[in-house]
Amino acid sequence: MGMLKRRVMPEDVVINCSRDSKIPEPPAGHQWKEVRADNTVTWLAAWTENIQNSSKYIILNPSSRLKGEMDWQKYEVARRLKGVVNKIRAQYQADWRSPEMKKRQLAVALYFIDKLALRTGNEKEEGETADTVGCCSLRVEHVQLHGKVDSQEHVMELDFLGKDSIRYSNRVPVEKLVFQNLQDFMKDKDPRDDLFDALTTASLNKHLQDLMEGLTAKVFRTYNASITLQEQLRVLTRAEDSLTSKVLAYNRANRAVAVLCNHQRAIPKTFEKLMQKLQQKIEAKKAQVTEAQVEVEKAKADLRTRGENKPKRLLQKQRRLLKLEEQLARLRMQATDKEENKQVALGTAKLNYLDPRISIAWCKRFGVPIEKIYSKTQRERFAWAFERADEDFEF
DNA sequence: GTCCTGACTTGATTCAATATGG
DNA sequence: CCATATTGAATCAAGTCAGGAC
């Protein structure tokens, strides 16, 4: 923001630890702002940062028991949603017909959150912060309705800047009732007006709380991410495949989730170079394949015309061809994989949205070493899950 | 209801470590 | 062996959400 951050002094810092613990000494000649013992919060030290006037905390590592416990609870709430999600979907679909505008807006917003995995979209300080939106703060200018687009009816186009000013741009066919409701919500409004003018994040979450204890908008993201991983793993994994293919299948499933959640990254600076190199390798391999084909044909001809008793030679050539073709296929697969992944960030979903027990169970079931999926710190972070997942775990 | 704030999670980027290849 | 590419961890800003004041 072009502003300078003030140095944090001991006099700014509040220490939070239990009374009977060893209270850390402030640096010589200094005092803490305060020492307190509040076991209703998890932070160890806190101060106020001078740019946005917001609280900053020293917190425990993700591998800590406390953080692990909280992570586990998060996924347990998402699993409870699995039990009631059909009922909730049936209800919001029914509410699309409600005579009450408020109810219809809520029903369509919830549909967005569920189907498109949008964030809830709290109000933000205008001017002070970047102009980004989520579901509840969507404006008319972010939505375009197309009655008919190449054989598809009722197509909705969303285009807005979300968290971290990452662009969300998506074109999806929606149900007729959703389409009609959106037309109604946009009627007689300016582009800058709120799409859901009768809705706030507080009222939305209040409604969700009534449907299920602990349910908030973000639980849908967790639920849909984890259930998508589980489902994709089921579809993409074949027991007889090689380890490499299985890991590739996992990454594909991971990517499906990242795409759903719109987790993007800047295209790596060296991406073009990397692809060119790979393309060269593919061309070289292609040439080898062609060459091998010629040799197979020659061996066949030899066998016929000269009646040579060397079928072994042909077999050899055929085997070589097959191997080269496999290598070419693998290179092509690698290229597709890289291309599809160039703008997609897999880490965020892996760390924050995918119940680690799904991955652990999958590894056990298909004999994939866990190190292929989780790095050392990730394994430490998910220690809680290793204690709780066997190969039969189902999200 | 609206506004405000505290406490927590989520997120892309940056930085550091490790792997790769000429 | 060194330079470069790739991977993994750390960072801290930007979100979510609940609760209290009015």
Bin the strand percentage: 5-15%
- Silhouette: globular
CATH level-1 class of the domain at 66-219:
Alpha Beta
- Strand arrangement within the widest β-sheet reads 2-1-3-4
Mean pLDDT: 89
Radius of gyration: 28 Å
Helix content: 40-55%
Query: N-to-C SSE series?
Result: EEEEHHEEEHHHHHHHHHH
User: Structural class of the secondary structure composition?
Assistant: alpha+beta
CATH homology superfamily of the domain at 66-219 = Topoisomerase I, Chain A, domain 3
Main β sheet profile: 4 strands, mixed
Q: How many E-type strands?
A: 7
Number of helices: 12
- Alpha carbon gap, first and last residue: 42 Å
The CATH level-2 architecture of the domain at 66-219 is identified as Alpha-Beta Complex
Unreliable stretches, pLDDT < 50, 5 or more residues?
none
Keywords: Coiled coil, DNA-binding, Isomerase, Topoisomerase
GO molecular function: DNA binding; DNA topoisomerase type I (single strand cut, ATP-independent) activity
InterPro entries: DNA_brk_join_enz, DNA_topo_DNA_db_N_dom2, TopoI, TopoI_C_dom, TopoI_cat_a-hlx-sub_euk, TopoI_cat_a/b-sub_euk, TopoI_cat_euk, TopoI_DNA-bd_euk
Domain DNA topoisomerase I eukaryotic-type: 1-367
